[in-house]
Amino acid sequence: AMALLDEMKKNGIFPDVVTYNSLIHGFFVSKNLEEAQAMFQEMKREGISPNTNTYSSLIHGLCQARKLEAAKATFHEMKSNVIIPDVKTYTSFIRGLCIVGEWEEAKCTVHEMESNGISLDVITYSTMILGSIRSGKWEEALGIVSDMNSRGVPPDLAIYNSLIHGLSEIGKFEKAKGVVCDMKSKGVSPDVVTYGIMIRALLQTGHWEEAKCIFNEMKNKEIPGDVITYSTLIHGLFQNGKCEEARDMYYEMKSEGISPDVVTFTTMIHGFCGIGNWDEAKRILCDMREQKVQPDAITYYMLISALIKDGQQTEAMQLLEFMAERGESPN
RNA sequence: CACGGGUGGGAC
């Protein structure tokens, strides 16, 4: 990108605000914070005035990198240069505040944007909902959802999923179920992710039979499970001591034409090693090899620990060497 | 021109 920039300058095509905005954005997404900021300084040196998008990119990049002080300073600079922030500028900044846990400050910023005549859009609301959940304010999150409904900005699938996920994570599973009912009644259909969240939550709380019911419900709704759904089920069934059921899921997914991936294989092998069923574990390893799925660092870690726990230190060492030979570096 | 949010799986 820099070579191209040089080339254009040499050919007398001078970068404008759009060029610089692209560069700033590009450097931020490639995590080159200093370069991004250098581009901002360069454009100002060259007498090119930053616009709303320039500041939005900077604020977004700085917030993403958790440089909130710098983001605040940039936002301040923007306003003092009378560049008007838009909904995206505000949303990026609000998200940054939420990321670092400055929930009250985030709410103040929302008031500020509203008093400047900028309405929250679905993404701003989404940011606030996630922020409230992460600050432990799940009641506020639910309140924002009802605000959205009354203000004619209905929550989308992403918002419902993040809410259901957040509530499940903090053990508010009944509330999560309530949200699933709400979304259905508002005509937003749960997708494979929604079901995945519910299935995982049920399995983690020991409700494996109910998890299977939900899985059947999704199949009846013609939402086919994918490799993640099956891996979640397999893992959870093993955790619940339902090894036969887990194995059935493995064969079911294969018969559905869904190829197990490295996570599925690792989960299966881990499950069988955990109960000392080495024969089954080996069978899965063979399947994995046949399917040409490469073990990753986690697979090796799991196998090596299983061998050590079984007193097979020599084999564990051999596996470590093998892993290195295969170009997989131990973590 | 570019640009903002969110969503499920494995070892520890």
Characterization of the model:
Helices cover 73% and strands 0% of the residues. The chain is globular. Helix 8 packs parallel to helix 10, helix 12 runs parallel beside helix 14 (227-239) and helix 18 (297-309) runs antiparallel to helix 19 (313-325). The model has no long low-confidence stretch (mean pLDDT 92). With 331 residues, it is an all-alpha fold. The protein is built from 19 helices and no strands. It starts with a helix and ends in a 6-residue tail after the last helix. It binds one RNA strand of 12 nucleotides through helix 2, helix 4, helix 6, helix 8 and helix 10.
Please outline what is shown here.
By secondary structure, this protein is an all-alpha fold.
Record keyword descriptors for this entry.
RNA-binding, 19 helices, mainly alpha, 0% strand, 73% helix, 331 residues, globular
Write the layout of secondary structure elements.
Blueprint: H1 2-10, H2 17-29, H3 33-45, H4 52-64, H5 68-80, H6 87-99, H7 103-115, H8 122-134, H9 138-150, H10 157-169, H11 173-185, H12 192-204, H13 208-220, H14 227-239, H15 243-255, H16 262-274, H17 278-290, H18 297-309, H19 313-325
This protein binds one RNA strand of 12 nucleotides through helix 2, helix 4, helix 6, helix 8 and helix 10.
